[in-house]
Design brief:
The chain is α/β, with parallel strands linked by helices and 382 residues long. It has 12 helices and 15 strands.
């Protein structure tokens, strides 16, 4: 069985080829790097299935799909479009069998390929009439799916409006809030959810006049559940925060227990106490990566034996949720976020956010994001 994969990204071609081989080592994977090449390979090799990226140089995937479906020699070949945000209805109009949304999950991708290949392989030993009936059934199913897709698109628009409002509120009140901006005038927050509403929140309050408490929570759930979790977590932290005397460790354990009870789940939780007058930073919790950066040094704040240190006016506190594939598949490897910090720590602070946003955008294009992303950077000067 032959499967043609058309994509202009070498990384994606390698990734998809590996996934197909993991499904069945006997499958022959053909490669095309643009739409024109895909048409040529399809005509010469007659693959059993084509995976076609929508956006490609020379000739787009949609234009290549049209040409393939116009050619009697190749019009029978099922084509799955790989698309990020394009109008998939147009692909169905020109004969696409299915589409897979980028970024895709491994299991979903393999199930789609498995089902299509089963349909392709199934009728080979049948007689001509059975093959004709099978394809008629497939066409009827495609019509049913088109109608279902139209309904889902309408429902998706309604849900998008709801989620869009929740996203805005989540970012405004639970990530880059007015309180965070007031307590830390020199800071930036980079937050990218894998799906819609991110699973993290940032909380900060002033105590004892000048001291500042800073907390970062990462929830096990996403979407609207994460939005509600952030609301409950903020309420719990505000209720647990002592009004006068303050012991960071006691507050940490009390707040974590209360959050677990309220959410009926265990979040990742990191707590910091910053004393600007005495230039002292203390913390509790090691399950969310953090570091203290200066122009000459980077101190990782993950040693449970060390829970406090002095900071200088040029120091920056970074707290990170890394949702990229390098961190998830190889936990022992060096974190790409900290690689970034090492590279740009001498760059002016006000430029670092733009540099990181651009890096994340490039990583996302390569399908490397596997979970939510958070980078909180706080300059410890006022």
């Amino acid at each position: 069985m032959k499967i043609l994969v058309a994509d202009d990204s070498k990384l994606i071609l390698s990734l998809i080829s590996s996934l197909i081989k993991s499904l069945d080592a006997s499958y022959e994977v053909l490669i095309a790097t643009n739409g024109a090449e895909a048409i040529t390979v399809a005509a010469s090799e007659k693959p059993d299935l084509i995976l076609m990226d929508w956006q490609m140089p020379t000739l787009s995937g949609l234009d290549a799909l049209k040409k393939i479906k116009e050619d009697p020699a190749t019009q029978h070949i099922p084509v799955i479009m790989l698309t990020a945000s394009e109008n998939t209805a147009e692909a169905f109009k020109y004969g696409a069998t299915d589409f897979i949304q980028k970024p895709f999950q491994k299991d979903e991708f393999l199930n789609r390929i498995r089902n299509i290949m089963a349909a392709v392989q199934g009728p080979k030993d049948s007689d001509e009439e059975k093959i004709k009936d099978e394809w008629m059934n497939i066409e009827a199913e495609k019509d049913r799916l088109r109608h279902l897709k139209d309904t889902l698109i309408r429902q998706k628009k309604e849900l998008t409006q709801i989620f869009g409002r929740a996203q805005t509120l989540h970012h405004r009140f639970f990530i880059d809030s007015p309180v965070l901006k007031s307590n830390f005038p020199n800071h930036f927050v980079v937050s990218h959810a894998l799906l819609d509403i991110p699973s993290h929140m940032v909380w900060t309050r002033r105590i004892d006049g000048d001291k500042i408490v800073l907390a970062v929570c990462i929830f096990p759930n996403k979407g609207m559940s994460a939005f509600l979790s952030a609301f409950l977590c903020e309420k719990t932290l505000d209720t647990s925060l002592p009004r006068q005397s303050f012991d960071l460790s006691s507050f940490y354990h009390q707040a974590l227990a209360a959050i677990k009870t309220e959410l009926e789940a265990e979040p990742l939780f990191r707590l910091f106490l910053i004393d600007p007058v005495n230039h002292n930073l203390s913390w509790c919790g090691e399950n969310i990566p953090a570091c203290l950066c200066s122009t000459n040094d980077m101190i990782m704040l993950n040693d449970p034996k060390t829970t406090a240190l002095s900071f200088a006016a040029d120091n920056t506190l970074h707290v990170i949720q890394n949702g990229f594939i390098e961190h998830i598949e190889a936990p022992g490897s060096h974190d790409i976020f900290f690689d970034f910090l090492l590279q740009v720590r001498n760059t002016p602070f006000e430029k670092q956010q733009a540099i990181l946003e651009e890096a994340i955008k490039n990583w996302q294009k390569e399908l490397r994001q596997q979970n939510d992303i958070l980078t909180l950077a706080v300059q410890l000067k006022w």
